[in-house]
Specification:
This protein is mostly beta strands and 260 residues long. The chain has no helices and 23 strands.
């Protein structure tokens, strides 16, 4: 079980399991399978109104972006490039899907596309031509209502699961503001900080961190760092909803957590 994402209303969790996309009530219950193809499908993300889920699938050879009604139905293919594309977020108005892919660097960049150094793109949720947002690597995007967003930067090809790694290549949480084209490093430390998720106040955020010498756990940043999850188990993925819930997966289980 991977890629757990909770719906905007906090009532449903989407996740990937053995190459298909499922949903399940956040309180527990029977899971509903949304995709049934023989392909490998992963990384579901919710639209802001909770009516659609975008995900990645290799059903046509390459890893492309598809969109499907969150209650089930026909999937629609949104991207057609031969490279691997990963859905990261919806735009605040739900009209576009933000995705990462290593397609094309600007002409001024001396390096060519590399798997570890992707770019960030946007494609209309109803279908259309993709547009590049950032030429620098940005994954695990968390959108704010004003169009600014947090993301996890990628500095090199070092294994992201290397335990207790501390160096200049470890990942940080950054904020990008399109209006001013400015970047701000929000965590700025030698260890791993990853997968930011915006809190309901739109200024604080949750993220995964190995700070304090522990395994990956859910932390919360609002002027100070606060560990929220148990240090006894590794946390792989995290997300939150507007109702102050956090959902995370550890090994083959998913858990729901509330912040007081």
């Amino acid at each position: 079980m991977r890629d757990v994402k909770i719906s905007p209303d906090g009532k449903t969790i989407a996740f990937s399991y053995k190459g298909d996309i499922f949903t399940v009530p956040s309180t527990g219950g029977n899971a509903t399978r949304l995709t049934t193809s023989a392909a490998y499908e992963s990384t579901p993300i919710w639209s802001p109104d909770g009516t659609k889920i975008a995900y990645a699938s290799d059903r046509n050879g390459g890893k492309d972006i598809y969109i499907i009604p969150s209650k089930g139905g026909q999937s629609t293919r949104l991207t057609f490039n031969s490279v691997a594309e990963t859905p990261e977020a919806f735009s605040p108005d739900g009209k576009n899907v933000i995705f990462s892919a290593y397609i094309q660097k600007p002409a001024v960049n001396i390096s060519g596309p590399h798997r570890s150094q992707s770019e960030l793109y946007s494609v209309p949720a109803e279908g259309g031509r993709p547009v590049q947002i950032l030429s620098t690597p940005a994954v695990s995007v968390a959108m704010r209502p004003d169009g600014s967003f947090l993301y996890e930067n990628v500095k090199g090809s070092e294994d992201k699961w290397r335990k207790h790694h501390t160096s200049s290549v470890t990942r940080d949480i950054w904020m990008y503001e399109p209006s001013s084209k400015s970047y701000t490093n929000l965590t700025a430390r030698a260890g791993e900080d990853r997968e930011p998720v915006i809190a309901p106040d739109n200024s604080s955020f949750y993220f995964l961190s190995e700070r304090d010498g522990g395994s990956f756990n859910v932390d919360y940043l609002n002027r100070k760092f606060l560990c929220l999850s148990s240090r006894l188990h590794r946390v792989d993925f995290a997300i939150e909803s507007k109702s102050e819930q956090a959902v995370f997966s550890s090994t083959e289980e998913s858990h729901r957590m509330f912040r007081e």
